[in-house]
Amino acid sequence: MGLHKKFTLYFTLVSLVIVGFFSWQDFRFHNYQINTTRQGKVELLTEVINNGLKSIMLEGRGKKEFQKFIENLIAEDISAIRIVTQEGIILSSTVPGEIGRPMPEKAISIYNMGKDVSAFTHAEGGKKIFSKIVLIKNDPLCQKCHGRLDHIRGILDVEFSSVDTDRRLLNATSVIMRNSVLMLLALIISVSALGYFLVGKPISELIDSAGTMAGGRPEVSALAARNDEIGVLAGYLHTIKSDIGSKAEEIGRYHAERDLGLEKMASLGELATAVAHEIKNPLAGISGALQVLAEDFPEDSPRKEISKEILEEIERLDRSVKDLLVFARPPEMNLISVDINAVIEKVSGAMGPQAANSGVIISVTSDKTDEILADPDQLEKAFSTIALFSLQSMKKGGRLDITLKDGSDGGGVEMAISDTGAGMSEEQTKNIFKPFFSTKNSGSGLGLAIACNIIEGHGGSISVSSSPGRGTTYYIKIPKTR
Asked: In what side-by-side order are the strands of the sheet with 360-366?
């Protein structure tokens, strides 16, 4: 359901409750007014009848005069007027045939309650009747003729039909209901129309503009000119559209540059492989020839020392060439089930003597029990390269901690290799795994790049955390299966 429909529905429900509440209050007010008017009319009529009865009695006129008097008072809303004696016999009545008969049971019950004035509603002949019972007291003026023995001389019973009252109440209810419905409809239509033009339509335009943002929509700029929340939102959308356009251009340039870089890297890899092969064989020949020549030099000859230095440089160049070949054309992996603990023990054992000479303590902690699918020789090479890099950063001794545990995803291994060396700057940590980047004066700058390739080749990942003077930690994750 759309926002405009939801708003209209909720407003209708709330308006229905509010209008219904106030309509009910209006109905109660009209009902109160009508009943109050009826009550006043009843009070006035009973007072007129009571005073008229006393006047006729004092003037000495007979029962016939009083009968005429009450008959003249009969109106559409007055059902009956009765005068009843103390003994409960109807003395005068506007109802034919009632004179001389006992008073109605309902009047007797009210009379027996001993109240001076009583009013009640009852049904009679399918109509609702309002009755009022007034006790005619033996006032001092009445005592001149009737004596003082009796406190009550008779009962006045006046019945009013509620037909007129009910009709007025029904008319009032109809008017209230009609006005309430019309007011509710007017409110719903007005608010729905305002909601559509002020909110619904602009939001629909914003949605259309957002959906076709790549092609551009002038409506966004037009809506942005509004001085309300819709205008602010349209302005933001227009800004986002411009930003997305500029970002898309930047992404396109980045992809183009990356593709160009990949092509260059591929070309450089092929070139490096060719150059490495061309260099490797001559280096082997030069090294062999130099070793033969060095055998003819006396031990105390300066040429002997120079030959040794040349052979060391040739060996360094040979290692660089081998690293370049491995980086350019990584060897195929021989994946088998491997106990990673055995690999780490082999790495730490091989580095033990060098660590001892540097005053470095190697600590291995492992909670890893499951085997993983990997190439043990390549993992050993990657871990040895990383551990050696950490070892070389601790010139004055320190600690090298290697910890292993099960992967958090339920398989594989998570490893941390931490040292207490000199650490690296933020710029160095960003570039440490890039080829030909080195923090040392010697080296090819390919060792960590090759280690990263081996770990990623196993479907894993490697990251580094370091700061100057606080050591370095390498975090390695390798899944259970590739």
From this structure: 360-366, 398-406, 413-419, 472-478, 461-466
pTM attached to this predicted model:
0.44
Name the nearest CA neighbour of 391 among 354, 416, 440: 354
Class of domain 212-329: mainly alpha
**Contact predicate 431/464, CB 8 Å:** no
What angle do helix axes 447-457 and 376-392 make, rounded to 10 degrees? 140
Which two structure tokens, joined as six digits, stand for 424?
């690296």
pLDDT in tens, 168-178: 778 888 888 88
Rounded to whole angstroms, the Cα distance separating 461 from 387 reads 16
What's domain 336-478's superfamily in CATH?
Answer: Histidine kinase-like ATPase, C-terminal domain (3.30.565.10)
Decide: 185 and 8 in contact? Cβ < 8 Å: no
The partner residues of 84 in beta bridges, in order of sequence, read: 90, 155
Q: Kind and range of the H or E element at 381?
A: helix 376-392
Tell me which architecture the domain covering 3-169 has in CATH: 2-Layer Sandwich (3.30)
pLDDT tens, residue by residue, 428-469:
888 888 877 776 655 567 788 888 888 988 888 999 999 888
Both tokens assigned to 355: 């660590």
Q: Taking the C-alpha atoms of 425, 427, 429 and 435 in order, what is their torsion angle to the nearest 10 degrees?
A: -130
Structural domain boundaries in the chain: 3-169, 212-329, 336-478
